[in-house]
Amino acid sequence: MAVKPVLSFTEKGIYCPAGDFYIDPWRPVPRALVTHGHLDHARPGHGAYLATHAALPVIRHRLGAITADGIGYAEPRQIGAAQVSFHPAGHVPGSAQIRVAVGGEVWVVSGDYKLATDGLSEPFESVKCHTFITECTFGLPVFHWPTQAQTAADMAAWWGRNAANGRVSVMGAYGLGKAQRIMAMLADHGLQGPIYTHGAVEPITQILRAQGYSLPPTTKVAGPVPTNALVIAPPSALGSAWAAKLGPHAEAFASGWMALRGVRRRRNLGTRFVISDHADWDGLNSAIRATGATRIFATHGYTTQFRRWLEAQGYDAGIVATEWQGEAAEGEPEANPE
Ligand SMILES: [Zn+2]
Ligand SMILES: [Zn+2]
Predict the structure, then answer these.
(1) Cα torsion at 336, 137, 276, 130 (round to 10°)?
(2) Is residue 240 a contact partner of residue 231, using CB atoms and an 8 Å limit?
(3) How far is the CA of 318 from the centre of ligand 2 (A)?
(4) Cα gap 108→267, rounded to integer Å
(5) How far does the centroid of ligand 2 lie from the alpha carbon of residue 333, in Å?
(6) Is the confidence at residue 327, as pLDDT, over 90?
(7) Distance of alpha carbon 232 from its chain centroid, rounded?
(8) What is the 337 CA–ligand 1 centroid distance (Å)?
């Protein structure tokens, strides 16, 4: 009798036959294990959710009334014939990789991840496995991130220059993760003034602060702001009527996509900062090596190119197709999270 794979790939998402559950499914299913609260992973409509205790408050905020259970990092849980556990992915606060073991065979679904510590998210932990399903949002050698300390210094200098010129600083950043990472790293570096937030950023910031994540004070924009303020808003707010009401201001956009020259040209977005909550090329490769896995499936991003690269490195490599490909992984689903 042929051995069933630990996980299989269905039109609803990644499925575990031994435990009868899905991981980050994009169509409604009875039981979903969810890696984190970004909308391409935490979809509405499932019968029951399982996520880390740290991820659940934001997931509940975004999805409303759901049936959900929390789990601690590294806490084993038996579901049918499968043993599952969640391990830090370093992507955003509460994010996890999901380990699934069935009869001695171990698979890990990475979710979204990054190796660099951001001072806010639980740091990425490598998990040994036979098969690793990895995201590859930035799976091309052109993607190489500067250090967070360098980016923080650049942002603080930009903010200080704007304040000196009587201009409010408006930073476009995704509402869950990136926005809070930026405020925390700037607080660490030294604030140039008060931090204000867009209505799509403030509720998530408050939820994470209440959970105990260390974040500087923020005020939701509700009228004029001082010229030495930094306003953190979703990227969709850049260039909008909402931003115009802030008066004289300078805009910046913080994203991994800013590493691509074509994107910088196409999008007229003022100052750009290269900062991502996904692994860059070196990060992906070292994460994969550290798992010890011999079989790798690529998902979320440059899957075709990345699979070819993995095969050239001697891996047994495949692709997991999802409904959310390429730019959607860090793009529009996060633009209007409310
Ligand atoms: Zn994500
Ligand atoms: Zn994603």
Answers:
(1) 120
(2) no
(3) 18
(4) 36
(5) 9
(6) no
(7) 17
(8) 12
CB 66 within 8 A of CB 79: no
Residue with tokens 């500067």: 146
Nearest to 313 by CA among 289, 290, 337: 289
Compute the distance from residue 182 Cα to the ligand 2 centre, in Å. 19
Distance CA 266, CA 299 (A): 26
Q: What distance in Å separates the CA atoms of residue 137 and residue 174, rounded to the nearest whole number?
A: 16
**Residue 260: band (very low, low, confident or very high) from pLDDT cuts 50, 70, 90:** confident
Tokens of 251: 């805009």
Helix axes 178-189, 202-211, angle to 10 degrees: 70
Which amino acid, 34?
A: V
208: which DSSP letter?
H
**Ligand 1 ion: nearby residues, β-carbon < 5 Å:** 38, 112
DSSP states along 250-268: EEEEE-GGGGSHHHHHHS-
Q: Residue 331's pLDDT band (boundaries 50, 70, 90)?
A: very low
Residue type, 25: P
57-86, pLDDT tens digit by residue? Answer: 999 999 999 999 999 999 999 999 999 999
